[in-house]
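Good morning N.,

You mentioned wanting to compare the apo and holo forms, so I went ahead and generated the holo version with 1,3-dihydroxyacetonephosphate. This is what I fed in:
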Amino acid sequence: TLLARHEYPTVIWGRNAEQVAAIDQRHENPRYLPGVPLTESLRATTDLAAAVASADLLLVVTPSHAFTETLHALAPHRRAHAGVAWATKGFEPGSGRFLHEVAEEILGPGVPLAVVTGPSFAKEVAQGLPTAVTVHSDDEQFAQTVANALHGPAFRAYTGNDMMGAELGGAMKNVLAVATGISDGMALGLNARAGLITRGLNEMLRLNVALGGRAETLMGLAGLGDLVLTCTGDLSRNRRLGLALGRGQSLGEAVAEIGQVVESVQTGDEVMRLGDRHGLELPISALVRAVLHEKITPREGLQRLLAREQKPEYPDGLFE
Ligand SMILES: NC(=O)C1=CN([C@@H]2O[C@H](COP(=O)(O)OP(=O)(O)OC[C@H]3O[C@@H](n4cnc5c(N)ncnc54)[C@H](OP(=O)(O)O)[C@@H]3O)[C@@H](O)[C@H]2O)C=CC1
Ligand SMILES: O=C(CO)COP(=O)(O)O
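and this is what came out, ligand included:
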């Protein structure tokens, strides 16, 4: 709806005929964005081949568990010049690969790729409220093309060239949002929330540096920006999952009640796998995973965090 608002002829593909008809004809998405009017020029279809074959630019927004199959489905129909961007946040489930690695493998060399990420609740974007995101690509011109399409009177799109850092920030903030949600669900107070956000940012920065990424990406919209939004904004599904767990609900009950994708349930595993591979301790992320897998209760998680040894805030400099 943002692209259509910017007068780009835009077609959204979906697999559910009823939802597609509602978007195409009534300009609404009653299942996922009830009550938010969509741009009238936005077209919707269930015909993936036709939608892809007519596009100069592809923006994938399926959940991470559907990313690989969606790219396989669209690849044969992609026009030779059409670059592929995605707003999906997470890793490929199972392999733990970054999504740009998956895209490179499926689409082959030479296809322009870009990550769109940042603090952007879909509902607020659709309502036309001011939002800022960042578009990262190895191909500077493609980053600019995607940013130009998204950028408009109420939407700022910055550019960068650190795809891995941008993807790591978008994935990790979902796990850390569960931690602050749990803390708030247990009514542990505002100090606890700020402490978790800051030490969570530290986990993001250390993992990114271990992977060879650049700290500045995580200090920007892709990291800090999205971390603050998701840890504090009740529109976040990941935060709401934490709130429910902190109040004593089970994982199954909470996920069913939210009724939308909650990326952290899968991403917690992949983050810990990356941390283990690089010999990093990520205490908040580790406890979130343990609570999500119902191996420990939120109260046990809290006790373990508070019982950790006292130490310098930055033992080996800022980013050892
Ligand atoms: N919502 C937000 O504010 C933001 C979300 N994101 C990221 O975007 C991604 C999608 O999130 P979001 O749209 O909010 O999730 P939702 O749960 O709201 O919607 C998921 C959508 O993806 C579709 N879908 C699920 N599986 C498949 C599949 N195998 N093939 C085709 N379509 C599929 C669903 O269709 P169906 O109804 O048929 O199941 C539905 O339309 C996530 O990675 C999220 O982290 C990024 C920034 C902001
Ligand atoms: O990524 C998002 C906002 O930038 C949406 O967060 P949730 O998936 O937690 O709702």
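The beta strands are 11-13, 43-45, 57-60, 83-86, 113-117, 131-136, 155-160.

Happy to go through it together on a call whenever suits you.

Best,
F.
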